[in-house]
Amino acid sequence: MSFKEGEHVLILYRDRKYLKRLVKGLHLSVRGHAISFQDILGKQEGQKIGEFFVLKPSLEDILLLGFKRGTQVIYPKDAFYTAFKLDIRHTDRVLEFGTGSGAMTAVLSLLAGEVWTYEVSERFYKIALKNWETFGLCSNVKAFNMDFADAPLEDEFFDACLVDVKEPWEYLEKVWRVLKRGKTCAFVVPTTNQVSRLLSSMADLFTDLEVLEILQRHYKTNPERLRPEDQMPAHTAYLLFGRKSI
Q1: DSSP letter assigned to residue 131
Q2: Which of 14, 96, 100, 209 could make an S-S bridge to 162, C-beta 3.0–4.6 Å?
Q3: Whole-model pTM?
Q4: Which runs of consecutive H residues, i.e. helices, occur in 68-171?
């Protein structure tokens, strides 16, 4: 497919990536080389223009390079694994609370039939809505600017759940109530203290508990000098999973 005005494009210059919206009259300059957005219009994905390659952005590109962040977003290495562990099907209704900037919501919405997400902060809520609107994401998402604790919901209403708040143990009983039997809830927390308290609180409500963190190391793509990158993100979050027991 060829690029059209108003679309977003991923521009590669050597090992650098830039996510831009194609507007006539604008250009990108990097280290003495420039590419006019006018010259990208009508070109095919993967085409080389001068010193640059132009590609359609993936969801990962959008989340890392395009989303405005009001809070720390869940890294793709954590987000996509979490979505896999939740075993989401296209007919499922998924619960999320602690929407933040809406990055994890975007991941969930690609897999689920419907996502219900709750964010207590009006500022973060508006950032998430703007991020989705900008990139045409999350049309199957119902977003609420409220505390999940105050949400009127039926019992056993959701097929999966993702919790990303500071004190998740305060919501466990309600999460258990609205989650279907045997279904999985994932929790994302940054400290071991939170993990310990959450595990203690989950003992009588969830089974098949699992705690992990994901470490990801990239390598330099020089075949003559193959070795790891000089820096890597170390700890990003602890992931805790449990399935509703009765």
Answers
A1: H
A2: 96
A3: 0.92
A4: 76-85, 103-111, 122-135
Percentage, residues of the chain above pLDDT 90: 89
- 208 Cβ partners below 8 Å, 6+ apart? 241, 242, 243
205: nearest Cα among 162, 246, 155: 246
Residue 132 CA to residue 135 CA, distance in Å, equals: 6
**How many whole angstroms separate alpha carbon 213 and alpha carbon 74?**
12
In this structure, the chain runs to a length of 246
Q: Residue 105 and residue 101: Cα distance in Å, rounded?
A: 9
What is the reported pLDDT for 121?
A: 97
Q: CB under 8 Å to 134, separation ≥6 — which residues? A: 66
CA distance linking residue 158 with residue 210, whole number of Å:
20
* Structure-token match 């998740």, residue found: 168
CA distance 117 to 138: 11
- DSSP secondary structure string for all residues of 42-54: TPBTT-EETTEEE
Amino acid at 174: K
**Paired tokens of 126:** 């508006």
Task: Provide the pairing of β-strand 27-30 with 33-36.
Answer: antiparallel
Strands 206-212 and 141-144: unpaired
Model confidence pLDDT, tens digit, residues 51-73: 999 999 999 999 999 999 887 77
CA distance 188 to 78: 9
